[in-house]
Amino acid sequence: MMEAFQRLSLALAIGILVGIERGWQEREAAPGKRVAGIRTYGLSSFLGGLCGFLQPVTGPILPVAIFAFFCITILVFSTLQAARDEDYSATAAIAAIMVFVLGFSAVVADMTVTAAGAVAITVLLATREPLHGFLRRLTWLELRAALILLTMTVVVLPILPNAPIDRWQTINPFELWMMTILVGAVSFAGYVLIRLTGARAGILMTGASGGIVSSTALTLSFARQSSQTPGLSHLLSAGVMLAGAVSLTRTLLICGVVGPAVLKELAPLVAPAAIVFAIAGGLIGSLRRSDNTPDFSPKNPLEIMVALRFALVLAIVTILTRATLIVFGTQSLLALAFITGLGDLDAITLSVAKLSSGQLSADAAAYAIAVAAFANLLAKAVLAASIGSFAFAVRLAIATTVAALAGMAGFLLA
After folding, report:
1. Do residues 214 and 369 make contact, with C-beta atoms less than 8 angstroms apart?
2. Alpha-carbon 311 to chain mean position
3. Which 3 state secondary structure label does DSSP give 118?
4. Residue-wise pLDDT tens digits, 193-205
5. For residue 95, what are the domain limits?
6. Which end of the chain is flanked by fewer CB atoms within 10 Å, N or C?
7. How far apart are CA 76 and CA 188, in angstroms?
8. pLDDT tier at 360 (50, 70, 90 boundaries)?
9. Could you tell me the pTM of the whole model?
10. Kindly report the CA angle at 277 between 271 and 281, in degrees rounded to 5?
11. Are residues 56 and 173 in the same domain?
C-alpha cells in the first residue's frame, strides 16, 4: 500500500512539475485561454498512473483506450487553440502526452528513472529561449563541425579495427581515431566557449579559453595585437599566461585519460608550471582594466581536413616514437620529444602516453612529455619576442622562466 501511494504521488508530482513550467511560460494568457495548465498536467499524469494500476487487473485494452481518448482530446483542443491564436507549435500537446506516459511509467517502471526523465523534459521545456537564441547564433560551419564530431564517433569509430595493423605493432586505427576524437572534442569545447563569451568577456577569458583550442595560435594573435596596441601589452601577456596554464592542464587531463600511470609521474613536473602561469596571469590581469579586447577568432578545430591532418601527424609521431625506442633506446626519446614539442604538444603527449601501457615506463614517458612541454613554452616565448611588443615579450619571458624553474623544482622534489 505504501509503495502504491508513493508511485501515485510521483505520478501527480510529475504533472505538477511540468504544469508549473508550462504555466509560467504562458502566465500572460487569460484564464481559460490555455489548453493545459498546472491542474490539467497534474490530472494527466495522475490519469497515466491510474492506467498503470488498471493494466494488471483489466489487461492492456482499457489503458490503451484511455490513452487513445486522452491523445485525441489533447489534439482536438490544441488544434482549436492553434486556429484561434495562429500558433501552430506542437510543444504543449507533446508535453501533455509525455506527462501521461511518465505518470504511467511511475507506476509500472523504475521510479528513479521516471523522476529523472520528468526533470529532464522540464529542463528542456524551460530552456526554450536559450536554445532558440543558440540556434540563431549557430553558423553552418559550427553545425557541420558538430556533425563531423558525431560522425567520427558514431559512424567511423565502430568500424575501425581495434588491433595493430603494422609489423611493429604500433598503429591501432581504433585507438588512433579515438585520440583524434578526444583532442578534437576538447578543442571544439574551447571554440564554443570563445564563441559564446565573445570579445566583451575580456582578454583573460579569451586567453583561458583560447588555451583549450590552441595556445600557440593565441600567442601569435596576442603578440601581433601587442605590437599594434602597446598599451594592452600587460593584459595580452596575462591572457597568454592563462592560455599556457590551461594548455598544460589540458596535457595533464589527456594523460589522465590515455595513460593514468603517466599522470602520477608527470604532475609534479607540469603542475607547478601551470600554477605559476595561472597566478602570474591572474595577478598581471588584475592590475589594470581596459574595455579594448583583441580579436581572436580561431579556426574551427573540427574541420574535416584539420581532423585528418592531426590524425596523420599523430600516426607519424607514434611511428617515429616507436622506431626511436627500438633503434636508439629510451634516452633518444627526449630529443624527439623536444623537436616535436616545438610544433605540437598534443601529438607527442598522446603517442608517448599510449606507449606507457607496456612499451615504455611511466617515468620515461613523463620526462618525454615534460621536455615536449618545455619546448612548446620555449617556442611560444621566441614567437612572442619576435612579433610582440617589448613589454609583452619581457613579461612572457619572465613568466616562462619562472614556470620552467618551478617545473624543475617539482622534478627535484618528486
Report:
1. no
2. 20
3. helix
4. 656 665 445 567 7
5. 2-132
6. N
7. 44
8. confident
9. 0.55
10. 150
11. no
Length of the chain: 414
Is the four-CA dihedral 90, 91, 97, 98 of positive or negative sign? positive
Pair 256, 207 in one domain = yes
Amino acid residing at 304: I
143 pLDDT more than 60: yes
The amino acid at 174: F
Q: What is the pLDDT of residues 257-275, one digit of tens each?
A: 888 888 888 899 999 999 9
User: Cα separation of 167 and 155, whole Å?
Assistant: 27
Cα separation, 180 vs 186, in Å, equals 10
Q: Is 338 within 8 Å of 367 (Cβ atoms)?
A: no
Question: What nine digits make up the cell of 223?
Answer: 603578440
Q: Which residue, 129, 131, 125, 128, is CA-closest to 14?
A: 125
Q: Are residues 92 and 230 in the same domain?
A: no
Cell numbers linked to 175: 585507438
The residue type at 384: A
The answer to whether residues 162 and 273 belong to one domain is yes
How far is residue 105's CA from residue 69's CA, in Å, rounded to a whole number?
18
